[in-house]
Amino acid sequence: MAAKAVKTGADQKKIRLRNQIIVIGIIVAIYVIANFLTGGKVFRPNNIRTILTQVTYPLMVGLGLMFIFTTGMIDLSVGAQVILAANVGAIAVQIYGLGYPGLIIGTVVTLVITELLCTSCSLFLKIPSWVAGLGCALVFEALGMILVGAYSETLGTSIVYLEKCDGFGSFLVIFIIAVVVAVIAYFIFNRTQFGYNLRAIGGGGEVAEAMGINRKKTIIMAAIIGAVIIAIGGITQLSYTGRFTPTSGMGSLSGIFKSLAVVLISGSFSRIFNDVIGCVVGAFIVAGLFNVLTLLGVPSGTGQDICLGVVVMLCGILSALHYKGVQK
């Protein structure tokens, strides 16, 4: 029996490795085809640099969402949280002259607080997480508009522009930060007791509690870690674009649409890739898709979103293929 179990485990690893190679090969092939269709524009140095830059924000926000969503909390207020937190950081720099410490601390602390508030509404008040997320999104959007509006006269504009301390937005720095965040996220998610507890809760809260895992404590820790990762993504994106424009009426949700797609793609690949690696793969799929569609002249907001939706569904189909051996 032991020998059979070892053989079965080895076969499953071979199948998993084979499918990982297949998926990566398909993605590379698609990039090659896209390069041909765009007349060689995809693999031009400047465009590769653009893709690597565009990967960073969806990846880091996606990794943060992965920690939060694994607990079963579907928080749709993250887009509003990022806008509010980034503007707090920008105001700390532009109005109060607090430099990089103000940018980092203001953004991170604000996002951790807002995420904990949203998580607590669901965890302690027993409100469904998606309902709490929608309600919190409206509140955080309003707070963002009120905050920026309060400083609009001083700033002379209705948008807070980060004109100083934008060093995190340069190409090499922003990409290195994303890589470091992904490595740390992988270690925490897969190589720590907390990560084990988190994945156990994701597999079934009642079973995890029966194993002696403190569910509420783990969810709170996941919210904090996820918020810090998302805040880092917000800081680098703010440094890159120079602003986060306040919005209302759930408009903030569109700001994390790509990151949500990254998480969905990662979930569809969950039987092929580790969740963190799945997020990395998903981020390159999303960034590459939007880049190629832009080069082909496909309009943003309509045609590009339709294509992204189709890709997400295809990834779900692809991840289910050739896995009968694992499901025995």
From TrEMBL:
Any one Pfam family match given in the protein's UniProt record, by short name: BPD_transp_2
Subcellular location field: Cell membrane
Membrane topology: Multi-pass membrane protein
Cellular-component GO terms for this entry: plasma membrane
GO molecular function terms listed in the Swiss-Prot or TrEMBL record: transmembrane transporter activity
InterPro entries linked: ABC_transp_permease (IPR001851)
Keyword annotations from UniProtKB, A to Z: Cell membrane, Membrane, Transmembrane, Transmembrane helix
The protein's name in its UniProt record: Ribose transport system permease protein
